[in-house]
Every structure is written in structure tokens, then in C-alpha cells.
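TICKET: design request
STATUS: open
ATTACHED STRUCTURE:
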């Protein structure tokens, strides 16, 4: 289903929960609505579903305005974080529920339910009740049940929130594959950026009721359009006096400009390890945090604290140790603008003779 949303607003009394949100979603895409708590993600999802009425704006499915269409006529499947399965029904009956409501013939229902049970890896569990299943299995039943009536749009509200970390990871990849196979347009709400980056074809970042940016995870990561997006996606350090950093002196031309520096923009090592040593600054290792697959290193350069990562394969550093630091680039922003600035010393001005 192709979705178009134009100028969507939602007010609860005086409170403006969704502000002038517009977007298009292409058929078959998996979209992540990502943002901090209270930003308006669920309100947008509920308006798409018809569970909440927009204060203004238009919602169009396949080019037709659906603002007045009741939820059951919108062709939508739902998955909530708390499974919302019928406790007194078996897996089979849970999945069959929507089809029975539609009064479909019994053999057709059986065929569809068994196909979905197979698709969601629940074969052999048809006769169990929800309390006899793990959290991950219950959520699979919820997916199968939502897909049974062949919806054209699948809405998922924090579908993995109630599941423990390891199973959540497995379930995410499983869901992505399942949605690709079924080819259904899907929108899921999450406040977990890793989840959105891993699962979604496109992410919509929602903050304070506004759509801050929409794009592929890679695009949003590489080209954040607002300061909020830059600081929300990925880890980073905010630096007030960016013009004090080596290679970024020209930032002094824009007073009041701050920088956001991601860990992967920074390289640390011994001086001879750098291709252009003159572009490096001298720093001191302050703290080391072991993160399982790498070190997170806090380094200080001219009183400015920066965070970067270091491979476990490299020489182990010690707090207090002197180290050379190369900042490849910084994301700069002020009240009016934001842009990416490369370290101007990084490119060797002299040709290298071998
Ligand atoms: P979370 O990640 O915490 O679920 P969210 O981004 O989904 O947050 P919403 O649930 O859409 O945010 O809520 C947006 C804002 O609207 C919140 O400040 C919330 O308190 C408010 N809100 C939501 N529903 C109502 C309501 N029925 N009446 C009044 N205010 C509401």
C-alpha cells in the first residue's frame, strides 16, 4: 500500500502532540518511526490506524483519503508490544480469529492459518495456549495473527520491547526477512536506534511532534539534517570551541558554532602510525572502557574531552598515556545552519615520492 500523509496535526486539548507532519511511504517498505519518549510516534501510528482522529491534515492510502474510514475498513494488521493474544485461545485459534470474524469458509481458514504457522516457525505449537509459549514465540503468534486477514499495511508498536535482548536480536532479523518475503508495507515504532538502523529500509525521526528527517539509516547517519538527528543517531561528543581543534581553526569564522564529533571520526595512535603526522594533535588517554568487542577510549586534547573506539587487536593503552589524535571531520552546527567540515590538514599538500 502506498501511503501519503499531508500536514498531519494532533492536539490533545492545548497540547500539540503531532505538528505538521508530511511524508510518503512506498509500497512494500519497512519504515521505523524512531524518537525519544513522548515525541508523538504512537500518535502518528494510531492516526494511520484510525484509532485516533487527526486535528487536521490528510491521510491517503493508494491516493484515497481515509481520514473518516473506520479502523476495520483500512486493511491494517496490528502488533503491539504486549502481544495482546487471547489467553483462553490456542495458537491456532488466535491466528484464525480475524478470519473467523470475516466468516471465511472453514477449509480456507485452515489452509491460511497453517501456512502462517509454518511461515512464522510455529509448527507443532498450534494447540498450545499463550501461557505455554516463550515471549518470542508469543510475539510470532501476534505477527501470524496480524497477517492472517491479508492486511495491506502492518503497524507494529514497539514489537520487541517486552522481549529479552538476545531473542530480540533474533526476532528482529526474522521479522525483517518475513516482511520482505510477504512484501507488505510496514511501519514500526521504536525508541531503540540500533533496532531502527538494523531493521528499517527507511527511518523517520520524530521529536517533539515533528518529523526531523526521513531517509535510509545510512543516509541519516551520514547526513543528519538537524542537530537533534546528529546527536540522537550514533554516539558523539559535543565540542563548544571547535576552532581550538587542530585542522578546524577556520571554524572561528562562525562564532557560536559547536561541533558534534562521532567516535569513528577520530583516530588515535603513535605519531609514526599516521600518514600525515602534522595533522595530528597531542592528547592524553583519560579513561578506557572495555565494551566486549572493542575499547571505548576517552582522550583529552587541549582540555577538550573526546570519545573514540579502539580495536582489541591494537596495543592496549593506559590511562594517563600520551597519544596522537587525528580528527577526520566534525559535524558543525549553529542556530541557523549545520554542515560537515573535514580536517583541512588531512590531505597532504605535498606530493608523496616513493
Ligand atoms: P513513547 O515512546 O513513550 O511511547 P511516543 O513518541 O509514542 O512516546 P505518543 O504516545 O505519541 O509519544 O505521545 C506524544 C505526546 O502526546 C505525549 O506527551 C503524550 O503524553 C501525549 N498524549 C498521547 N495521548 C494522549 C491523550 N490521549 N491525551 C493527552 N495527551 C496524550
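STATUS: resolved
RESOLUTION: sequence designed for all positions
ATTACHED SEQUENCE:
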Amino acid at each position: 500500500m502506498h501511503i501519503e500523509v499531508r500536514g498531519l496535526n494532533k492536539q490533545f486539548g492545548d497540547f500539540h502532540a503531532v505538528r505538521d507532519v508530511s511524508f510518503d511511504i512506498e509500497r512494500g517498505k519497512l519504515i521505523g518511526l524512531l524518537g525519544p519518549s513522548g515525541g508523538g510516534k504512537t500518535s502518528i501510528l494510531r492516526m494511520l490506524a484510525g484509532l485516533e482522529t487527526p486535528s487536521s491534515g490528510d491521510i491517503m492510502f493508494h491516493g484515497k483519503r481515509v481520514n473518516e474510514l473506520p479502523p476495520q475498513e483500512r486493511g491494517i494488521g496490528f502488533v503491539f508490544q504486549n502481544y495482546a493474544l487471547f489467553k483462553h485461545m490456542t495458537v491456532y485459534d488466535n491466528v484464525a480469529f480475524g478470519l473467523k470474524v470475516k466468516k471465511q469458509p472453514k477449509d480456507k481458514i485452515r489452509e491460511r492459518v497453517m501456512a502462517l504457522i509454518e511461515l512464522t516457525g510455529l509448527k507443532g505449537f498450534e494447540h498450545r495456549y499463550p501461557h505455554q509459549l516463550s515471549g518470542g514465540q508469543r510475539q510470532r503468534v501476534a505477527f501470524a495473527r496480524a497477517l492472517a486477514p491479508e492486511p495491506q499495511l502492518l503497524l507494529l508498536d514497539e514489537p520487541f520491547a517486552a522481549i529479552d535482548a538476545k531473542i530480540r536480536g533474533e526476532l528482529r532479523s526474522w521479522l525483517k526477512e518475513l516482511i520482505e518475503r510477504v512484501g507488505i508495507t510496514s511501519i514500526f515504532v521504536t525508541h531503540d536506534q540500533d533496532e531502527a538502523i538494523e531493521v528499517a529500509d527507511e527511518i523517520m525521526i520524530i521529536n517533539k511532534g515533528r518529523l526531523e528527517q526521513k531517509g535510509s539509516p545510512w543516509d541519516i547517519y551520514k547526513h543528519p539534517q538537524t542537530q537533534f538527528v546528529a546527536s540522537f543517531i550514533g554516539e558523539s561528543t559535543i565540542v563548544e570551541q571547535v576552532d581550538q581543534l587542530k585542522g578546524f581553526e577556520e571554524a572561528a569564522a562562525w562564532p557560536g558554532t559547536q561541533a558534534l564529533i562521532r567516535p569513528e571520526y577520530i583516530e588515535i595512535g603513535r605519531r609514526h602510525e599516521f600518514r600525515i603526522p602534522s595533522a595530528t594533535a597531542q592528547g592524553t588517554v583519560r579513561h578506557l572502557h572495555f565494551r566486549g568487542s572493542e575499547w571505548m577510549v576517552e582522550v583529552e586534547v587541549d582540555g577538550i574531552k573526546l570519545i573514540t573506539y579502539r580495536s582489541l587487536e591494537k596495543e592496549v593503552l593506559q590511562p594517563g598515556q600520551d597519544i596522537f589524535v587525528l580528527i577526520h571531520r566534525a559535524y558543525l552546527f549553529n542556530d541557523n545552519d549545520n554542515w560537515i567540515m573535514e580536517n583541512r590538514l588531512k590531505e597532504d599538500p605535498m606530493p608523496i615520492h616513493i
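CLOSING REMARK: The chain has two domains: 3-231, 237-353. The first helix runs from residue 41 to 49.
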